[in-house]
UniProtKB/TrEMBL annotation:
<dbReference type="Pfam" id="PF01425">
    <property type="entry name" value="Amidase"/>
</dbReference>
<protein>
    <recommendedName>
        <fullName>Amidase domain-containing protein</fullName>
    </recommendedName>
</protein>
<feature type="domain" description="Amidase">
    <location>
        <begin position="3"/>
        <end position="231"/>
    </location>
</feature>
<dbReference type="InterPro" id="IPR023631">
    <property type="entry name" value="Amidase_dom"/>
</dbReference>
<dbReference type="GO" id="GO:0070291">
    <property type="term" value="P:N-acylethanolamine metabolic process"/>
</dbReference>
<dbReference type="GO" id="GO:0047412">
    <property type="term" value="F:N-(long-chain-acyl)ethanolamine deacylase activity"/>
</dbReference>
<dbReference type="InterPro" id="IPR000120">
    <property type="entry name" value="Amidase"/>
</dbReference>
<dbReference type="InterPro" id="IPR036928">
    <property type="entry name" value="AS_sf"/>
</dbReference>
<dbReference type="GO" id="GO:0016020">
    <property type="term" value="C:membrane"/>
</dbReference>
């Protein structure tokens, strides 16, 4: 929280940055902080917990939610996030168009030869998007933001697995020429699109490992300027995991 308070703020070099509200700095070890956590409403979209490649992910993330309810008195509320296919489409068009616009000056006059093949392939794909596609994506973005703000009237934090699969195997050929695998990228980014597209604060907390020993994360998504809440909740997740590791609070 102290680091966040020190670095937050708008940048005079970035015309689109916004001025945040003053930070709230709770005492994470205080009794008042524990009571405040008990007031948090955690939004769980069960379809997302089931839409994973390994049951290890859903089981471990679900266990953490139950621990937050038992140890801190948080409330879990079932939610529905509508228009997921539209959100994915708006995301790829928006991020593709904006990254292409930002990188184009660095790729002119043969400069793109310094980029890896996978990056050049992605940029070529992004060039297929039209201005009309981008405008349509921004309309979808506004509508999806409306849906999420309606959800945040019912919950304080949306909780999801961080990724739909654990770390994939990287082929040896990728070390030389890179790799473009949209299917794998989609599986990895399945649950982080909302934060990326809408600019919502989000954090991933390591919560365990699958049977292959690969790490699993729990993602906490907050409303605009909700960094204090998700940082406080992330600290609580680490606390309950630490207590379980050493057998405290059982």
């Amino acid at each position: 929280m102290l680091v966040y308070a020190a670095i937050l703020g708008s940048s005079p070099c970035d015309r689109i940055s916004l001025k945040p509200a003053p930070p709230c700095l709770p005492n994470l070890s205080s009794h008042e902080s524990s009571n405040a956590l008990g007031l948090l409403r955690l939004g769980k979209y069960t379809e997302w917990f089931n839409d994973v490649f390994s049951t290890d992910i859903s089981e471990i993330c679900g266990k953490i939610l139950n621990m937050l309810v038992e140890k801190h008195g948080c409330e879990t509320i079932e939610i529905v996030i509508p228009e997921l296919p539209e959100m994915r489409a708006a995301h790829i068009v928006s991020i593709g168009s904006e990254s292409l616009c930002s990188l184009t000056p660095h790729c002119e006059d043969g400069k793109d030869v310094k980029l890896t093949y996978d990056t050049r392939t992605n940029l070529a794909f992004f060039r297929s998007f039209t201005a009309s596609d981008y405008v349509a994506a921004q309309r979808l973005r506004r509508r999806i933001m409306y849906h999420h703000m309606e959800i945040f009237k019912k919950v304080d934090v949306i909780v999801t697995p961080t990724t739909g699969m654990t770390a994939p195997i990287i082929p040896l050929s990728a070390l030389k020429s890179g790799e473009t695998n949209m299917q794998v990228s989609g599986n990895l980014m399945r649950f982080i699109i909302a934060g990326n597209l809408l600019g919502l604060p989000a954090i991933s907390v390591p919560v365990g490992y699958d049977k292959q020993g690969l790490p699993i994360g729990l993602q906490l998504i907050g409303p605009p300027w909700g960094e204090a809440s998700i940082l406080r909740l992330a600290a609580a997740v680490e606390e309950v995991l630490w207590a379980c590791s050493f057998g405290y609070g059982a």
